[in-house]
Amino acid sequence: MVSNINDPAVQARVPQIGERPSWDQVWIETAKILSQRSLDPRFQVGAVIVTEDNTQVLAVGYNGDHKGGPNSVESTEPGQSGFIHAEINALIKCDFNHPKKKKMYLTLSPCRQCAKAIVNGGIGEVVYLQEYRDRSGIELLESSR
To answer: What's residue 19's pLDDT?
Structure first.
């Protein structure tokens, strides 16, 4: 399952004044904070993987360079920053021996390659804040469920 948190159906889950925020809102806000660690001038992307029951954060990630790298883009051409995507950074850190179903929250919908990794990682649901210019990642996630 893949959904845009700005979709009216998802927005219906956003609390009114005096109510607690939904888990979707909590995790998207967490991903937004994590995205601030990225030094990509085009897209600062954050990712959070949690258990489906919202009891554990399993991994976090943001788009950036390899460990110890210079954290500067290789190119300003779209799609050529050279940074590891937030989804991949989170998936690398996730414990796949964890028995609970997993859900990923992203500040930007995944590209096609990241969507493939998400499917192979067994992530059952993806919620994103903004849509990437190329919808092929979303389409791949929708067709693989």
So the answer is: 87
pTM of this prediction exceeds 0.85: yes
CA 101 vs CA 3, 84, 128: distances in Å: 17, 25, 18
Q: Residue 63 has which token pair?
A: 């788009």
Long-range contacts of 50-55 (CB under 8 A, 24+ apart): 50/23, 50/102, 50/103, 50/105, 51/98, 51/100, 51/101, 51/102, 51/103, 52/100, 52/101, 52/102, 52/103, 52/124, 52/125, 53/100, 54/23, 54/27, 55/100
Evaluated on CA atoms 135, 139, 142, 145, the torsion sign reads: negative
The CA dihedral of 41, 68, 104, 44, to the nearest 10 degrees, is: -10
Determine the length of the chain: 145
Report which residue type is found at 80.
Q
Q: Which residues contact 4 (CB under 8 A, 6 or more apart)?
A: 10, 109, 127, 128, 129, 131
For the chain, the C-alpha Rg in angstroms (whole number) is 15
Average pLDDT over residues 11-26: 78
The confidence band for 6, taking pLDDT boundaries of 50, 70 and 90, is confident
Distance, CA of 82 to chain centre: 18
